Amino acid sequence: MLAGHSLKVGQLRGDEPMQVVSGRLDKPKVHFEAPPRDTLAAKLDQFIGWFNHSCNEQTLDPILRAALCHLWFVTLHPFEDGNGRITRALTDMALAQADNQSIRLYAMSVAILERRNDYYRILEQTQRGNLDVTAWVVWFLDTLEQTLDHAMAAIDGTLQKTRFWREHQDAGLSPEQIKVLNRLLDGGERGFEEGISASQYQKVAKVSKATATRHLADLLQKGCIDKLPGGGRSTRYQIKR
Questions:
Q1: What are the tens digits of pLDDT across the range 210-225?
Q2: What pTM value is reported for the model?
Q3: Among 99, 130, 155, which residue terminates a domain?
């Protein structure tokens, strides 16, 4: 958005060409141009009608419907700002309608943002090709599979964490020990995937070197952690499985 330019909130975009871009503000990459303003209202009405009626269409696969919904709306790009967010929200809504569940444990919008560069590549490829959207649907399904894998990993991690604290809830652990154990249980980049050393424990728990050594020995004795192969300063510890 240009400085001094106010957005038309709740209104369709203006008459200027709407280009879908990514990259730096001073060096944007144009992927495609949305339909002109004079045809937008009719095209948007067509999309809304299709979205509302296709929810109950028995012959349309619900996952395919979500893929088409995403591609169709992001192609229209009907507003001056927020089109990407609305597109991702509509996609998650379509998937939620397919699940027919009151509680959902995944959101595809996260995976799309993680694959942002690949996302713009496939959008550009689809827009500049013919009417065959097979490549887009394949990309969408692959991203959905990644989303579900991440959700299952998060669920497994939550279950493991719950079982661990149920087993050790009466172990009499200090707040510092609990803080470090939660970091180990959470995993990921901040979870010390290769185990934690005494010096790392000292930094995370903000305790002295002697206290860190004593805490780790106590956690070992209580069966909360295992010592990994190695010795001396290279000794590392991980959650006991």
A1: 999 999 999 999 999 9
A2: 0.74
A3: 155
